[in-house]
Design a protein that fits this description.
GO terms for molecular function: 5-methyltetrahydropteroyltriglutamate-homocysteine S-methyltransferase activity. One of its GO terms (biological process) is methylation. About 45% of the residues lie in helices and about 10% in strands. It has 26 helices and 20 strands. The strands form five sheets. It has an eight-stranded parallel beta sheet. It has a six-stranded parallel beta sheet with strand order 15-16-17-18-19-20. Strands 3-4 form a two-stranded antiparallel sheet. The chain starts with a strand and ends with a helix. The structure holds glutamine and zinc ion. The site of glutamine has 13 residues, from loops.
């Protein structure tokens, strides 16, 4: 039996990878230095996987930025604006595509399936693929020559590559797949000639909704590839969910199929058990969670593998591996000296996951008696967690009963109009104001203990009062305190709630050299004490205008954290919701009766298959309502989201029953306006009138244009005027200038209605 891995994190234990890239970008190291440093990191990652005992180690998953960009570049799919004229692609062209340069903006970036990783979107207009340079051959040889590793080149498969791409006419799908198959054939032929045994072609799009027509294309592609490179052993690798069209996928003329047995809702296992699995193929079984950070229960995994063994009877045909690339996990638990020891033993990052894979292999065909050390230690670990009392809530299978505000929107609206007495087209912001160096330094100082808590509070209050004055001068109608005390909208709440842990080094790549360090939800989440009341009440004491309280919603907190794997996700969401509910009450009791609960990550949590959306949206909406429904009729609940694709989730958005929603608009106004042309939306709504991602101060006319267009499809008496998102990344002068113009635009619009 064989162990394998699908991909390893790039960032490095101490983020060496990020540091090397950023040093090159800032011209502090040469191109040669960059290549040398990245090679060192790359070889080190291969060595680590070998040392862990992994038999089939991936090569080519390592990248200088993003693996999809690598594929685009290898296939010469380089947009005209980068002035590429054939031959090997220079490192500067590569980085220009990733990050933009003085002459050309970067390629678009978007979320990788349902993860928080972002890939560079291939742009296909007016292009013909040709192989520029076969990087996989180079990397295969490097692993073999330098480390004696028989690597498994990894490449995104042709079908998924096209599905991830943009800017081609859908009517050309077939044509594009044919052209891509030609370049894939060439790359694979060269790999075969170089002596490669196994190639992993990732086809995660096979777990999304695949049409019959598309499935027929997939079959054609793999038949052609098989005819062109009959001796190369291709594994078609899927992950993140169960495959659609199981029967057809397992019949593809390839040497192996990789299936995810962790995030498949049991469906892949059910499929192999009821439909069988072809005896001539390898089943690469993803059994260790590649997306989360918990150690697996060894006995459960052995039981799962025993079931797989019943179907795949020849040990050589069964591979054990993580469910996906380990790109989505941090590197190692070793560098977390400050974590609680029980918690630390329960964690498994990339390096530890590889060991888990190897342990399973060792146990599967040998001694599985309960007193085997690996099994005993693993069981002890779970007993130790139980003994901590962190996890008292039992998994819940009961349906949840709906919660609602006492009065419907139509009933509470007149009461709110009377209470708040705002002009039509009220102006407000999304919450944060510029996080200057000084603000960040201040927070770092109090964390280190180099200033007293009291000093810190005084200085934060100074920022609040400065910005209350600014907002009054600007003429905004609903003010905010500015979020100066917050590092990050999830971390801030996680640090103040029970059940969250924070790491020192557990970084995960988000895009390019950027990483995130998600909190770990390890136990029942509970409210401890008010988290936002002091600052908000202080801000309110300085002004007669309303100050909006500012909270992060339960779904966003959950989606941006590593969650527990012993409770269903919805249940964790409800625990967080109950905690946020208490904060809402605390604010309300302190006289803050306009409260915004941000849910920018609600859409991100959508499952990959549309048939699963309803279940998710039902519990996500319920979580939001749990946190916000108990308020008085006159209390105004706001929410905010940073995207504009609403068409397909509009019913859920309406079901949140927020009195006011503010959404990001300015970069894709067309989409959002057509959504509201086709759907009535009867609650309060503010479509962002300017892009906060750019330092450019927009003109009043631009904002008026956006505003007037929005007012053609949305009722003026329910419309709010606000920027796209929080202003924490902007400079103070830009912010003040832009907001003044925004307020003017609103005033002009009021005169016209
Ligand atoms: N209230 C947050 C802010 O203004 C919202 C951020 C977000 O939507 N991502 O920064
Ligand atoms: Zn936002």
């Amino acid at each position: 039996m064989t162990t394998s891995s699908l991909g390893y994190p790039r960032i490095g234990e101490q983020r060496e990878w990020k540091k090397a890239l950023e040093a090159y970008w800032s011209n502090s190291i040469s191109e040669d230095d960059l290549h040398a440093q990245l090679k060192e990191i790359r070889l080190n990652h291969l060595r680590k996987q070998k040392r862990a005992g992994i038999d089939v180690i991936p090569v080519g998953d390592f990248t200088y930025y993003d693996h999809i960009l690598d594929a685009s570049v290898m296939f010469g799919l380089i947009p005209k604006r980068y002035d590429y004229s054939g031959g090997p692609v220079s490192i500067d062209t590569y980085f220009a595509m990733a990050r933009g340069n003085a002459k050309a903006p970067a390629c678009e970036m978007t979320k990788w399936y349902n993860t928080n990783y972002h890939y560079i979107v291939p742009e296909l207009q007016d292009m013909t693929p040709t192989v520029t340079e076969n990087r996989l051959v180079t990397l295969y040889k490097e692993a073999k020559d330098e480390l004696g590793i028989e690597g498994k080149p990894v490449l995104i498969g042709p079908y998924s590559f096209l599905k991830l791409a943009k800017h081609y006419d859908l009517s050309q799908t077939e044509d594009w797949l044919k052209q891509l198959t030609v370049v894939y054939s060439q790359v694979l032929r060269e790999l075969e000639e170089a002596g490669v045994l196994w190639v992993q072609l990732d086809e995660p799009s096979l777990v999304t909704n695949v049409t019959d027509e598309e499935m027929a294309y997939v079959k054609d592609i793999y038949e052609t590839l098989h005819a062109d490179v009959p001796n190369l052993q291709i594994i078609v690798q899927t992950y993140f969910d169960a495959v659609e069209n199981y029967d057809q996928v397992v019949e593809l003329p390839v040497a192996g199929i990789g299936l995810d047995f962790v995030h498949d809702g049991g469906k892949n296992l059910h499929a192999i058990q009821t439909k069988g699995f072809p005896g001539d193929k390898v089943l690469a079984a993803g059994v260790i969670d590649g997306r989360n950070i918990w150690k697996a229960k060894v006995v459960d995994k052995l039981a799962l593998l025993e079931q797989v063994k019943q179907v795949v009877k020849t040990p050589e045909k069964l591979w054990i591996q993580p469910s996906s690339s380990l790109l989505h996990t941090p590197v190692t638990v070793q560098n977390e000296p400050e974590l609680d020891s029980v918690l630390k033993r329960a964690l498994s990052f990339a390096d530890e996951k590889l060991i888990e894979v190897v342990t399973l292999k060792e146990l599967l065909y040998s001694d599985q008696s309960a007193d085997h050390t690996a099994i005993r230690e693993n069981q002890q670990l779970f007993k130790d967690i139980e003994a901590t009392g962190w996890r008292k809530q039992e998994p819940d299978t009961e349906a949840f009963s709906e919660v609602s505000r006492t009065a419907s929107y139509e009933q509470r609206r007149p009461k709110q109009l009377e209470k708040w007495n705002l002009p039509i087209l009220p102006t407000t912001t999304i919450g944060s104001f510029p996080q200057t160096k000084e603000v960040r330094r201040l927070r770092a100082q109090v964390k280190k203990g180099s200033i007293t808590e009291e000093d810190y509070k005084t200085q934060i209050n100074d920022y609040i009062s400065t910005w209350i004055k600014h907002q009054e001068e600007i003429g905004l109608d609903v003010l905010v305190h500015g979020e100066f005390e917050r590092n990050d909208m999830v971390e801030f709440f996680g640090e103040r709630l029970e059940g969250f842990a924070f790491t020192k080094n557990a970084w995960v790549q988000s895009y390019g050299s950027r990483g995130v360090k998600p909190p770990i939800i390890y136990g029942d989440v509970r409210f401890k004490q008010p988290m936002t009341v002091e600052e908000t009440v202080y801000a309110q004491s300085l002004t007669s205008k309303p100050v909006k309280g500012m909270l992060t919603g339960p779904v966003t907190i959950l989606n941006w954290s590593f969650e527990r794997d012993d409770l269903p996700k919805f249940q964790v969401a409800f625990q967080i919701a109950e905690a946020i509910k208490e904060e809402v009450s605390a604010l309300e009791n302190a006289g803050i009766e306009m409260i915004q609960i941000d849910e920018p990550a609600l859409r991100e949590g959508l499952p990959l298959k549309e048939q699963d959306w309803k279940t998710y949206l039902d519990w996500a909406v319920h979580a939001f309502r749990l946190s916000s429904s108990h308020v008085q009729d006159t209390t105004q609940i706001h929410t905010h989201m940073c995207y504009s694709e609403f068409q397909d989730i509009i019913d859920a958005i309406r079901a949140l029953d927020a009195d006011v929603i503010s959404i990001e608009t300015s970069r894709s106004q067309g989409d959002i306006l057509s959504t509201f042309e086709e759907n009535t939306y009867e609650l309060g709504i503010g479509l962002g009138v300017y892009d906060i991602h750019s330092p450019r101060v927009p003109s009043e006319e631009e904002m008026s244009t956006i505003l007037n267009r929005a007012l053609k499809v949305l009722p003026v008496e329910r419309f709010w005027v606000n920027p796209d998102c929080g202003l924490k990344t902007r400079k103070e002068e830009e912010t003040i200038a832009a907001l003044k113009l925004m307020v003017n635009a609103a005033k002009h619009a009021r005169k016209q209605v």
